[in-house]
Each structure stands twice: as C-alpha cells, then as structure tokens.
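Re: the request from the purification team.
They wanted to know what the chain is likely to look like in 3D before they choose a buffer screen. I agreed to run a prediction and write the result into the notebook, where they can find it.
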Amino acid sequence: MRFFVVCPGGLETVLATELRQIAERPEVKAQGVWVIDPTPTSPTGGVGLAGPLSAAMALNLHSRIASRVLLQMAESTYRQEDDLYRLAHGLAWEEWFTHKQTLRVDVTAHRSPLKSLNFATLKIKDAIVDRLREVSGDRPSIDTAFPDVRVQAHLTATHVSIYLDTSGEALFKRGWRDEKGDAPLKENLAAGILAITGWQPKQPLFDPMCGSGTFLIEAAQIAMGIPSGAIRAGLYDEAGKESVPTRLAYRPLVTSVHGFGFLRLKPYVVGAEQKKWQALKDAVLAEILERRKAFPDAQSLHISGSDINEKLVSMTKSNWQRAQLPGLPVVRQVDALAAKPPVTAGDVSGANNLPGLALLNPPYGQRLGIKGGRGDDRDQAQGRYDDEGYGDDVDPYSHNIETGRQSAKRSSRESLKRLQAEEEIDPAFLEFMKQFGQHLKDAFGGWHIFILTADMALPGQLRIKESRRTPLFNGPLECRLFRFEMRSKAERLS
C-alpha cells in the first residue's frame, strides 16, 4: 500500500526521521516492512512511504509530527473534470465503506489547469456516490462537518492522486486539550519543533510563556513514552482511566469514540487487522508502564514553565492531567521578565550533561499586557486552531511551497528601523522586547533558547544575535524558529 503522511511545512526532515523510528519498533516490524521515500530537500508538505495496510495504524498511533495519514487509492493523468469522474468511479469504494456511512470529499491543487476546484470536488463526489448506488442500490449522505469517511484528491498540472484519509480528525487533535488559549500552538507543530531543537528526556526544559502548556505536555508525553494517539486509541479506556472533559476545546472532542478514520474502513475491522491493532496498543501500554518507573512524578521530568496569565496557568494544569501525566505540572504565574530558570547555570547540564533548553512561542498582545506589537491578532494571523489540515484554504502539498516563495524575500536580518518605518509599533512593546533580551542574558547563562515567531525582526528587538534560524510554517503563515546560545557570566567576563 502507498501512503502520504502530511505535516506542517518545514517539518519534512524531522518527520522522515520519525517515520524511520516508528518503522523500527519491534511490534511494527513484525507486521511488515516499510519503504520510506527519500527525505525531501524542499517543502513538500509531507513524506511518502510504502508499507502494509497496518502501517496506517502505527502511523496514526505514533506519529507526533503528522497532520494526516493518507492512503493512496489511485493516480493518473487528467485533462478535464470528466477524467476525474472516470478515475474515481472506477475505484471499488464498496470494498472500503458502505452507503450507510457519511462522506466528505476535499480537493487541493498545485498549478492545475482546471478553473474550479469546487466543480472538481463535485465530480469526484458524484463518482463515488454513483458507484455505491450502482453497487448497493443506495447512496451515502454527505457530511462536511463530522463525516465517517474522508476522501482527499490532489491535482498537479497533469496528474491527479486520490486518497482515503485514515486519520479522520486531524492528528494534532490529541484529545487531551480540554481547553485552549486564544491562539494555541498546534500539537504536531510543537512536537516537530521539539525534534528540531534536539531536546532529550531528562534535559531541563522551560517555557516562560507556556500558554495552555503545549510544549510542556508534548515533551512530557515523549519522555513518558505516551504516543500522540493514546487517547484516540482508547488506551486509557482499557486501563480504566477514561478522562471526562469539562469543556470542548474543539468539536467534536476527539476521544476513543471518534478514534481514527481507519477504524471505520472495512479492511481494518476484519479479525486479522484488529489483532494487529491490539498488538500495537499492548506494546505501547507495556512501554508506558516501564517509563513511569523512571518518571514517577512531574518533578522528575525536569519540565517546567510559567505564564503571566493565571487562567492559562490553570489551563495548563487541566490539560496536563487530561494527558495522563503524573501529578501536577511545575508551572507558576509570573511575568516573563521575572521568570527564572528552574536550575542554576552550574547545574544546568544535569545528569545527562546537556544544557538547559528554553522554548517559547511569544504571544505578544494581551498575554504580555502590551499593545501594538506585531502579532497582536495572532489568532487571525496564524489561522484557526481547528483548521482541518486540508481544504480549499490549506493545501498540504503545495500551499507551503507557494507561501515560501512569496515570502522568501523576508529576512531575519531586516533593519528594525525599516520595519518601524513601514508599520507603527508601540514603543512599550519594543522596550519590553529589549528588557526581555537582557533578562535572557542575565538569568539564562549557559542555556539554549529557541523562539518561534512570525516576526523576522525579533533578534534585533531582543538585541541578541541568533546562532540559527529554521523556516517553518504555522498553517499558511511563514515563521522562523530562532536559536540563541546564552553565554554564562564567566564566559562573558573572559
């Protein structure tokens, strides 16, 4: 079987590494060999691979970076909409789902000659519906909100690929986000950023602007061996720890009831595949129990954070518990300008001889109590948290490439004076950034600081020279992950 694993733009390299790690797990290897495509050298929006049918189970359960796992049904050349209809109509959809299940079809394109993607979507939908009506005598209903089955098609200038979505709800919806802030970072982007930083379990990790705790919780689950799909796979239901939400962070709330898309496809509900699915879950449960011995409480994880907003600190605690992590997180309400590292410079390396790592996604605006900084309306700029990960407004294959070309002229070295001339920036915001940069120098000596932002002028605002910058995409928005290496006081004086 052929799969395409979708991810946020800029994370293709770490996704390819993650896929190789999943493929090497003993319980996954026992179910068949995977052949993973070469790591992309430019933004492609994902990584392809060939593997057994059960690969979709392991990918949806384990991949922290993936947005969706698409199973390829067909690929062909096309010239007009009728070609799309013929290709889709010729596929044996009745072998995958029934007319009693609801359906949604999405089409994305890159340089397609067709004038209307909506019409292309309609033709593919009609083909599937007509096929099932001819076979069963009845047609499935369309449900664009909460469908049982999702079909995805992608058009290039000459070729069309048709996929079944094995994920259902987007994979960044882990199921632990009981409540969220105004502009939360998507969980799979946070996991990809952790992979880029090279963070390892037991290495001190601190987020001075933790918001609803996305970085902290993703890191803690990595350390605890809890897969990203644990809640959706029903692992805690089986362990008798089902968590009941108090609010809905997204609708529908993703639980084991909704699970993954492949659980509603015929080939995956047969006995043989169900045994493979159970084997994957059993292996994970055994690993979680073993890891809990190494991390019996939140303090043993060396993961901590803070935020100026008391509501967000409370939100982090709620999400932490729903993620089935031990105890309560080490988080407190404090201004970022007063936040102190959890360990001193002399102890920063800890037992594993690794430097402390501070990771943050500055929200600006209300959470800093400052108006006028770029990014005040971050929720609008970065896109909605509930975005599906594909659709007319989000193309997982090409949107990132096009956005990157349009924004390539933006540089992290742009003159701050030039940016100020182009748009009004509150002087209080600039003063805060200057003070925060000085605070990092004074309090975080010996630490590595990683900051995700869409503001390319951030290094200049902090008055700190970055050691590395990594282009990333948060939805359609181009961002940079800046790395700063803070010298210790002794190094600065020498």
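For the purification team: The longest strand covers residues 68-77.
Please add any questions underneath this entry.
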